[in-house]
Write a structure and sequence with these properties.
- By secondary structure, the protein is of the alpha/beta class.
- The protein is built from eleven helices and nine strands.
- It has a single domain, classed as Rossmann fold (3-Layer(aba) Sandwich).
- Bound molecules: glutathione (GSH).
- The site of glutathione has 12 residues, from loops.
Length: 299
């Protein structure tokens, strides 16, 4: 991993990194916020700092959330690190949307492993986000036998829109092995198989076989995942979100959990007047941060 830039922000630092990914066969950018606790001498040697992964939405790079979600204040408050990955492989050699639209291809990898050519060449975003990136960050930051940061065990996941879908999907697919301790989402695409953004992406990356789609669709996955302990999923969505009716449809997730172990444990908070932007996200980041801090054992 190569450090491209270090930026002082709040009480810690945002580290901008780039690395060659085995999964995507491209160079990938990722931002990591190390909270003030990382730099403190008082950190008990045995305590590793947990991480919260934020998966961004369509058109985003790691910078959108780093600059506009205001997670850093919360990371310092509770003592977790943040990981802001990119949303797709990029570069001239990486196929993008034949229609040239922003909802597929570059900036729109949908966090799945593509099986269809030409996308299967590079769009292995599921493996990248949930396996390769945590391991790579672990090796980079926890050198010399001193492990201060936890990228693999005590980890929470959240995201926005396409990234909200990615968070729900990764959490539920990894649920039996407790891959993530906590999951939340901002304006997520909850049922990609049923909405235009998701159908376009799934057809392009996964092909026409619907069974492949169900393996990533939160509304299908949640029916087959038995909830344990006190686990809950927290979702916020603005009622003035222009994508609400066509692409997000949070009510479909509430329908899907009816009569399952998740009924009553998926909280969808529809908030009046908010749109799809980072004004909306940053407003509710403190509530999500507290939710994850509890689930990560920080409070
Ligand atoms: N670029 C699209 C909007 C796409 C969009 O709203 N993307 C969301 C995620 S789904 C986002 O986070 N955009 C970047 C930003 O607001 O900084 C348009 O022109 O309508």
């Amino acid at each position: 991993m190569k450090v491209v830039k270090e930026v002082f922000v709040c009480g810690g630092k945002l580290i901008k990194l780039s690395h060659k990914s085995i999964s995507t066969k491209t160079s990938m950018n990722v931002n990591v916020y190390l909270p003030k606790q990382y730099y403190s001498q008082d950190l008990p040697r045995k305590e590793r700092i947990p991480t919260v992964v934020f998966l961004s939405g369509l058109t985003c790079t790691p910078d959108n959330a780093s600059e506009k979600a205001f997670w850093q204040f919360q990371a310092d408050k509770y003592g977790f690190a943040m990981v802001f990955p990119d949303t797709s492989p990029r570069g001239d050699e990486v196929a993008s949307d034949p229609e040239g639209s922003w909802d597929f291809g570059h900036g729109a990898g949908f966090y799945v492993n593509a099986t269809q050519e030409p996308y299967a060449q590079h769009y292995m975003m599921y493996d990248y986000i949930h396996k390769e990136l945590p391991q790579t960050l672990d090796s980079h930051f926890n050198k010399d036998g001193v492990a201060k940061l936890d990228f693999q065990d005590n980890v929470a996941i959240t995201g926005h829109s396409m990234g909200g879908f990615g968070a729900l999907s990764g959490y539920l697919r990894g649920y039996s092995e407790k891959r993530y301790k906590s999951c939340s989402a901002f304006a997520p695409i909850v049922n990609p198989s049923k909405v235009p953004w998701g159908q376009k992406a799934f057809k392009g990356y996964l092909g026409d076989e619907r069974a492949q789609w169900q393996a990533y669709d939160p509304c299908s996955l949640i029916k087959n995942v038995r909830r344990t302990g006190d686990d809950k999923i927290l979702i916020h969505i603005g009622d003035a979100d222009p994508f609400l009716e066509e692409h997000l449809k949070p009510e479909l997730l509430l329908e899907a959990v009816k009569s399952t172990s998740w009924q009553g444990h998926v909280q969808v908070k529809k908030v009046h007047g908010f749109d799809h932007s980072y004004y909306f996200i940053s407003t509710f980041v403190p509530e999500h941060a507290e939710f994850h801090a509890k689930n990560l054992g920080l409070i």
